TrEMBL record:
Upper classification of the organism: Bacteria, Bacillati, Actinomycetota, Actinomycetes, Kitasatosporales
Coiled-coil segments: none
Matching InterPro entries: IS402-like_dom (IPR025161), Transposase_6_like (IPR052909)
Pfam families the UniProt entry points to: DUF4096 (PF13340)
Annotated protein name in UniProt: Insertion element IS402-like domain-containing protein
């Protein structure tokens, strides 16, 4: 539960956070804690609450929000949730047994572990490859620079940390450096203004929003 959550004027998020801290400091569940656990078995999990919040976000993206509920402020979008689930599936052996069960529950809804898919169409790349500045090295430009742009678009669409970049997209350090360079020299702004096929306009809009946020 997010700390800023307020229901009918009551700071429910802060209240739950305080109850969670109290139980953890006591080292045992209180009577109130037992009642809260009856309502939600994972309100005070033995792992970071941020992990549990992402689990719920992923589940709601897969099943839809229950009637009467709305997404909380800064909730992860569907791209972020899918990327998070892919990461949890890959590191499943490192999770606690009860976490593994929760991940398995989500994977049963998906049917299989979601894999990274390119977002930039071939038609869009033919346009964008002419927009990019001349490479500072020789060899491999079409493949390596397209991969780097895919990495930048992936981070913009999922809003995940660079350290969580899929291995298929290469070292995150190099991709982040290129993002900063292209943002500062205006290349990314040109990419966002380029006329591309309709299927590419979605990631263009998300990239533009991410540039504004990072600035």
């Amino acid at each position: 539960m997010s700390r800023p959550l307020i229901v009918d004027g009551f700071a429910l998020g802060i209240w739950l956070s305080n109850q969670r801290q109290r139980q953890r400091s006591l080292g045992r569940p209180t009577r109130l804690g037992h009642h809260l656990t009856a309502l939600d078995a994972w309100w005070n999990p033995p792992w970071p609450v941020t992990w549990q919040r992402m689990w719920w976000a992923c589940r709601y993206h897969l099943t839809g929000l229950p009637d009467g509920l709305e997404w909380w402020a800064a909730a992860p979008n569907g791209e972020h949730a899918a990327s998070w689930l892919r990461e949890q599936g890959a590191r499943r052996p490192l999770l606690q047994p009860r976490q593994q069960s929760l991940v398995d529950e989500l994977l049963s809804l998906v049917g299989e572990v979601p894999v990274w898919q390119p977002r930039i169409s071939d038609a869009a790349w033919r346009t964008l490859s002419a927009v990019l500045p001349a490479p500072s090295h020789t060899g491999g430009r079409p493949r390596s620079e397209r991969q780097i742009l895919e990495a930048i678009v992936h981070i913009a669409c999922t809003t995940q940390a660079w350290t969580r970049l899929p291995l298929a997209l290469g070292p995150f350090q190099a991709c982040r450096r290129r993002f900063l360079r292209w943002r500062n020299d205006g290349t990314l702004q040109l990419i966002c203004r380029a006329i591309l096929p309709e299927q590419d306009t979605i990631w263009q809009q998300q990239l533009a929003a991410y540039i504004d946020l990072s600035a």
